[in-house]
Design brief:
The protein contains eight helices and five strands. It is mainly α. It has one domain. The strands form two sheets. The protein has a three-stranded antiparallel beta sheet with strand order 1-2-3, with no helix packed on it. Strand 2 and strand 3 form a beta hairpin.
Length: 204
């Protein structure tokens, strides 16, 4: 993600502006993947599970949105209408755990909640679906494997950003993994409350 923005009047938006192009491109690709999986499962004698397919569709769309929001260069529109983008801060990185998190918290103490919301809460929330859908859709993914998967997904994104005009931040990995933990916790809570419902999403 982008470095700390101290001016609360600055608005951070993606270059494409809307998420719809990402959804439009991702949807047919996800459907194609599931059609191939359905053909393979049919040969193995595995019946179609519409609950699983619906869950996988949502999981795929969430994953596509995460990738788009972390790979596409960012545009900053200032209060004066001046537009800049991430290319003005190419290949910057933060390798000190907690430093950006602390700066975000410090900014909130001065009633600047924009980056606190965007960086801390945003990086946590965006990975909650990952932690929730992984164990919901696949039996073999227990809590440790789910958290590890979320960590590796975030690590891959941050390492990939090293080759892009993006801000690579080790704190993003911490926050993303935290979101994965929360998502997995929500799944296990749902499984405790409604075990029969959660089992509908898994292939037997």
């Amino acid at each position: 993600m982008h470095p700390i923005i101290t001016n609360s009047k600055r608005i951070l938006i993606h270059q494409l502006g809307e998420v719809y192009p990402v959804l439009i491109i991702s949807l047919p690709l996800i459907i194609l993947i599931r059609l191939i999986a359905f053909k393979i499962n049919t040969k193995k004698g595995i019946k179609l599970n519409l609950w699983h397919e619906a869950g996988f569709l949502l999981f795929g769309l969430f994953s596509a949105l995460i990738i788009s929001s972390t790979v596409i260069p960012e545009i900053i529109i200032t209060e004066n209408g001046i537009t800049t983008n991430a290319f003005t801060n190419m290949w910057q990185s933060n390798l000190i755990p907690g430093s950006v998190i602390w700066r975000s918290i410090s900014a909130s103490k001065h009633f600047d909640y924009s980056y606190f919301t965007y960086n801390l809460l945003g990086n946590i929330a965006i990975f909650v679906p990952i932690g929730f859908f992984l164990p919901l859709l696949w039996k073999k993914l227990n809590f440790p494997l789910t958290v590890l998967s979320g960590f590796l997904f975030s690590l891959f994104i941050e390492l990939f950003q090293l080759f892009l005009p993006r801000f690579t931040d080790i704190d993003d990995i911490i926050l993303n993994t935290t979101g994965t933990v929360i998502g997995a916790g929500l799944y296990y809570l749902l499984r405790f409350i409604a075990p029969r419902f959660t089992e509908k999403f898994k292939y037997q």
